Amino acid sequence: MSAHREPQYCPRCGVAYEPLQEYCLECGERLPPNRGAVGLLAAAWQRRFSWYPGDWIWPALLFLVIAVGATAVSAATTAGSGTTIVATQPHVTVGAGSAPGAATTQSTLPAAPKPTVTTGTLPKAPGAPTTTAVNPSAPAARGLTAWPAKGSGYTDVLESVPLSSGRAAAVARARLAKAAGLAEAGVLVSAQYPSLHPGYYVVFSGVYPTAAAAVAGVAAAHARGFPDAYVARVTHP
Looking at the domain 141-234, which fold is it? Predict the structure, then answer.
């Protein structure tokens, strides 16, 4: 006794057909040869509905299910990540005297915020900020080189020590330079010379009449532990 087989239905008119039948006897439609999973799904569809769109419906439904599942997983992952994006503003350094948008030029001294400098002793107004007092007539520390009075020239800047660090720190660096073999080491108050950036004790080495002579001295400064030394012009007001 042969096993009972589920009838197959024409995808166009829905009339049942035999397993080995190639054309529908009702409408003449060429019957699908697929007898696998797609054929079973097609037969189930045809039993449920009176029309069958074709075998393409199954890959399309599978793609739709995968797309919906991927979207749901992505939404759940994004909701649980808690990622925070923080926008930062880049820092732009503009050289002294340059207009906004102009190309940045390198000055002879490192750019730094300008502290408020006063000379002598001034009465402090109520609520006024504290300022650093600098005595322009302070003598050079013993054993260090003093810059010539009202003299202009070139020198090798070894370091620029902020006024807030105190003169003692600059003097200590100048003594260290002298001990390293830089004989003409000294300390300048940058605010007293228009060519220097105000707000610093400048530790220098040498008093040179020309820039070429100062350049020759920079190599010695580099070799004696001051790799950032550079040539600067010192002009007296």
Answer: Alpha-Beta Plaits (3.30.70)
